[in-house]
Design brief:
four-stranded mixed β-sheet, mainly beta, five-stranded antiparallel β-sheet
Length: 151
């Protein structure tokens, strides 16, 4: 975790597991029209990680890079809810690789393309930057309750 922060942080697996663990039960909505209900995610609240790196006042956005080259971004304020998790377990099991394991972000209030899999880097930024899907076909706000799918 780097960028507009007071204390940049690199976490290895043991470091992530040493942080306070949380559980969040939520529905998971895909932009393609399907949902999976009552998913039990376990991991670390994004808010906990943000507290460790201490974003500077200028940090308004976050940029996520994944090991497969995928990118997305979110306003920092969207990540501070008590259900946004850096997840490493799903429904009582380690998060399987096809679903983003070992670690993915889960933002339940948004379409799943805003919950990037195979997290590699989190960068706190002053300005918004559009990720893979947002710079092409899909909406940057990604609100499933407003059917906010396309640009």
């Amino acid at each position: 975790m780097d960028g507009e922060v007071e204390s940049p942080l690199t976490l290895d697996w043991d470091g992530l597991l040493s942080l306070p663990r949380t559980e969040s039960v939520s529905d998971f909505h895909c932009v393609e029209g399907w949902s999976v209900l009552d998913q039990r995610w376990e991991g670390v609240l994004f808010e906990t990680l943000a507290g460790k790196v201490k974003p500077k006042p200028a940090a308004k956005h976050t940029w996520f890079e994944c090991y497969d080259g995928y990118t997305t971004s979110l306003p920092l304020e969207n990540l501070m809810d008590n259900d946004v998790v850096i997840a490493y377990r799903l429904n009582g099991d380690d998060l399987p690789q096809p679903l983003g394991g070992p670690v993915r972000l889960v933002v339940p209030k948004l379409y799943a393309y805003k919950s990037p899999m195979w997290l590699k880097r989190i960068n706190f930024m002053k300005e918004k930057r559009l990720g893979y899907w947002e710079s092409g076909i899909y909406s940057d706000t990604a609100d499933p309750w407003k059917n906010d799918r396309y640009r």
